[in-house]
Design goal:
heterodimer; A: mainly alpha; 3 helices; 0% strand; B: mainly alpha; globular
């Protein structure tokens, strides 16, 4: 298809204004103070939540252990059946 | 890398794009090269501040031109709410080594309204393709095509009036 503006296109590209060298950029300013702060705060919160969850899990473990001990469960390994036959016998 | 350690990379971006951005801004603000210089600095500082929000949906080049265009529009709004600023013949003549034809072309472009002027400058001077222009102007690619066609139709008689056969 014929380009209706072919002549204009060529003319415009031949007469491009020269590029003037821009002066050096002023030093980029420090980014807003809240950006790094927000990132640090997010990390800090994530760490706190993780620690809190770990502590809570540890507390629950302790609680469960204490409960089992209170019920006088024997949890020594030698009392546990090691063989499938023993397990079946136990169920029966 | 550019996002996190960016000062040096940003200076490199400035070095590669600032000349074109300045030329584009000069055309947008009526040819005044002092204003264009200031706006170029402003545009790059804005781009620097907004860099963490850059979503890689476009190239850095089109993104920088988008910021530049918005900077020019803000400036134009702040100067009487006009979208067109009177020609600045002194600064038009200021560029060294520029032929009279090139100056006449710049004058013809400055006689156009803001959008066709932006379209033609991005197309002819900054060599942006249709997709890139669409991203800078925030309009569909098909619209860029039709508006570019219309803009060329407006430019041609201005050049013919200046004695060029185009």
């Amino acid at each position: 298809m014929k380009n209706e503006f072919e002549k204009l296109d060529n003319f415009m590209r031949e007469h491009k204004p020269v590029l003037a060298s821009p002066r050096p950029l002023k030093a980029p300013p420090a980014r807003s103070w809240w950006l790094p702060l927000t990132a640090s705060a997010a990390v800090a919160i994530a760490v706190l939540v993780t620690i809190n969850v770990q502590n809570r899990n540890a507390a629950l473990d302790q609680e469960a252990l204490a409960g089992m001990q209170a019920m006088d469960w024997d949890m020594s390994d030698d009392e546990l059946p090691t063989d499938v036959t023993d397990l079946v016998a136990l169920v029966d | 890398m550019l996002i996190t350690k960016s000062e040096e990379a940003f200076q490199a971006l400035y070095a590669s794009q600032a000349g074109g951005v300045r030329r584009f801004l000069q055309g947008m603000v009526g040819g005044n090269h002092h204003v264009a210089e200031e706006l170029t600095q402003d545009a790059f500082i804005k781009a620097w501040k907004a860099l963490p929000t850059f979503a890689f949906k476009s190239t850095l080049k089109t993104w920088v031109y988008t910021v530049a265009l918005n900077t020019a529009r803000d400036w134009l709004r702040g100067h009487g709410g006009k979208t067109f600023v009177a020609l600045d013949p002194d600064s038009l003549n200021a560029a060294e080594g520029e032929s009279p034809e090139t100056r006449a072309v710049k004058e013809a472009l400055l006689e156009l309204e803001e959008e066709p002027r932006a379209l033609l400058m991005l197309h002819y001077y900054e060599d942006l393709d249709l997709n890139e222009i669409a991203k800078v102007l925030g309009i569909p690619q098909g619209t860029v095509k039709s508006r570019l066609f219309a803009a060329k139709g407006k430019l041609r008689p201005k050049l013919v009036a200046k004695g060029f056969t185009v």
